[in-house]
């Protein structure tokens, strides 16, 4: 396998000059859910000054408008990015457009706090008990010690379709580890349940972002993400160059790196060997 080109933080802007548009993950790249990473806003401002559009692609189960609002609270103003695609918005579109998902109760496998902005016609179908549901909806993240409690009702409903609106298995928020809906979906599928995934690593999600950037004149695209499980495989499948950030996201602890600490090729290789898809570039962080 070809090793990724390791870029030092001081080299990033020079390497990025070859691209005219960018697709960025959020958690582990720009934010940790509670604050924006140092230098992230300045990075976006430089791309805006260059006239190079940025589109966010997130596995968050919020609707797109709700995520834009949340970013504003974190100090990422709307004028610094062209738009956003979220797993939640892709799932919303499926509920509204796919006839087989238009009726019946919906049971939330996660906390559901991010669904306040979902359309009322979907929210009014949410039910408290899984036996009242026709569909299971995987959303959000939760403390790791809640895994068994949250999965128990799902194990009794393997005949119901599971729509996963957050394919992440693990997330880091505020510096703390959490499980996400993808963890539940994996176990559900392992027992024979049917899961439909919305978001990364499905190349469709990447194509949605790429098509939006194409309408803004951007054809040479770079995706930036932190996950070797969802981000890198999705970008590779969509045939989009990928910059993997090793020291600001979910793999930082496994790599033994401090926040934004410059990695070495030797330090990255053992983890990279565990994943078949390789990014084109690797770096500590975005800025």
UniProtKB/TrEMBL annotation:
Q: What is this protein called?
A: Sugar-phosphatase
- TM region positions: none
Q: Per its record, what are the GO molecular function terms?
A: phosphatase activity
Q: Which NCBIfam families match?
A: HAD-SF-IIA (TIGR01460), HAD-SF-IIA-hyp4 (TIGR01459)
Matches recorded under Pfam families: Hydrolase_6, Hydrolase_like
List the source organism.
Answer: Pseudomonas oryzihabitans
Lineage of producing organism = Bacteria, Pseudomonadati, Pseudomonadota, Gammaproteobacteria, Pseudomonadales
Q: Which GO terms describe its cellular component?
A: cytoplasm
